[in-house]
Automatic annotation (TrEMBL):
Its main location: membrane. It is found in: Cell membrane. The lineage of its organism: Bacteria, Pseudomonadati, Bacteroidota, Flavobacteriia, Flavobacteriales. It comes from Chryseobacterium taihuense. InterPro entries: Na-dicarboxylate_symporter (IPR001991), Na:dicarbo_symporter_sf (IPR036458). This is Na+/H+-dicarboxylate symporter.
Length: 416
């Protein structure tokens, strides 16, 4: 069995064991559920932190090398334009799907959710109040590269890396080649580390799942069944559209791509972190046949601008909260909300629970009680599983599609 398949099987086994252990603790030792959850969650925390440790240097080195190797500024502009067109189109489609389906299914009108303590949403409400154009600009442009590295601000690292890569590309081979070669070696060294870190993924998955089930039990699925059902149905429609577009561009190679990224998809689903699979995704897309220059340029951009699952969830959750409070929004208001979400959601991918922060800010803007976010906080973890997995799929498809359009997609998969 290949290493990739062994990892996939190990994650599935860990997922099942995690649910079983969490359920056992919740049913038989309810008084110990909270300390147990806190301790076993550390397995997930260790895995996430191991991955976060290598994201900043990997994004920086691969992006600089990718752009510097292009050397042709026209090519950089062409690839960037194609990528941004995909990102904007995919974001609009995702937002519209969420808007249409939440209005059709109306989960807020039929779901009887328990009234949650609004204090659980206080932190989110507080963190969204200061959101402004000034904060948006500050979040994009780094004050210091070292600060961006220290806080893992991917978008800020991307901005610096693009400028540095373009500068290297125009510096001439005598000066640029030693730097490019050094960064290339560093990038491949970090990718080698990915192989080691990914074998800790099953333990991370086990810890994350067991903690949630031990604390909430299986009841939470019953209480929120309709909301979860409707959200995952909407997510299924989005997947169908993404895969159809992917098939139109990649043809039968789409199935090869899905086989390649099945482990990253499952890790993202289990750990609720698309960030956790970034290094592995870089590796698998290169093995699939995508040009490494295109991968290292588009994937970091996609992680900031192309979060399809999160985009769809924002309209779905915002209108859902309005429905819960009996607030009827006109078509014009809903379309305006969609455009606001389109703008405000860009570039905040590095913020913890970014989707929820944006939802709270948007609700406040449109007269919907922002405290309503407390209604969906208990199951946000499960929604986040679907969001994260969809974000990974969207970025894999975007990178593969642009590689194909550039004529930079090998007809067969291979090694790095």
């Amino acid at each position: 069995m290949k290493g990739q398949n062994k990892l996939f099987v190990a994650i599935i086994v860990a997922l099942v064991i995690g649910v079983a252990i969490g359920g056992l603790v919740h049913i038989n030792y309810p008084e110990s559920a909270e300390p147990f959850s806190k301790n076993i969650k550390l397995l997930g925390t260790i895995f996430i932190r191991l991955v976060q440790m290598i994201i900043a240097p990997l994004v920086f080195t691969t992006l600089v090398v990718g752009i510097a190797k292009m050397s042709d500024i026209k090519m950089i502009g062409r690839v960037g334009t194609k990528a941004m067109l995909w990102f904007i189109s995919a974001s609009l489609v995702s937002l519209f799907i969420g808007l249409i389906l939440v209005n059709w299914l109306e989960p807020g009108h039929v779901t009887k959710l328990p009234i949650q303590d609004a204090s659980s949403a206080e932190e989110l409400v507080k963190s969204s109040k200061g959101f402004s154009l000034e904060d948006f600009v500050k979040h994009i442009i780094p004050k210091s590269l070292f600060e961006a590295f220290a806080t893992n601000e991917v978008l800020q690292i991307v901005v610096f890396s693009i400028m540095f890569g373009v500068a290297l590309a125009n510096l001439g081979d005598d000066y640029a080649q030693p730097v490019i070669k050094l960064f290339d070696v560093v990038a491949h060294g970090i990718l080698k580390m990915v192989g080691y870190i990914m074998w800790f993924a099953p333990l991370g998955v086990l810890g994350a799942i067991a903690a949630v089930v031990a604390t909430n039990g299986f009841e939470i699925f019953k209480v929120y069944a309709i909301y979860l059902r409707d959200f995952f149905f909407a997510l299924g429609i989005l997947w169908l559209i993404l895969l159809l577009v992917g098939y139109m561009i990649l043809g039968r190679r789409l199935f090869d791509l899905l086989r390649r990224i099945k482990s990253p998809l499952l890790i993202a689903f289990s750990t609720t972190s698309s960030e956790a699979v970034f290094p592995k995704l870089v590796e698998e897309l290169e093995r699939f046949g995508c040009n490494n220059r295109v991968v290292s340029f588009i994937l970091p951009l996609g992680y900031s601008f192309n979060l399809d699952g999160s985009m769809m969830y924002m309209t779905f959750a915002s209108i859902f909260i309005a429905q819960i409070y009996g607030i009827d929004m006109s078509v014009g208001q809903q379309v305006t909300m969609l455009l606001v979400l389109m703008l405000t959601s860009k570039g905040i991918a590095g913020v913890p629970r970014a989707s929820l922060v944006i939802i709270v800010a948007t609700c406040s803007m449109f007269g919907i009680p922002p405290e309503g976010i407390a209604l969906i906080l208990p199951i946000d973890h499960f929604c986040d599983m679907g969001r994260s997995m969809t974000n990974v799929l969207g970025n894999a498809l975007a990178t593969s599609a642009v590689s194909k359009w550039e004529g930079q997609l090998d007809s067969h998969g291979g090694d790095l």
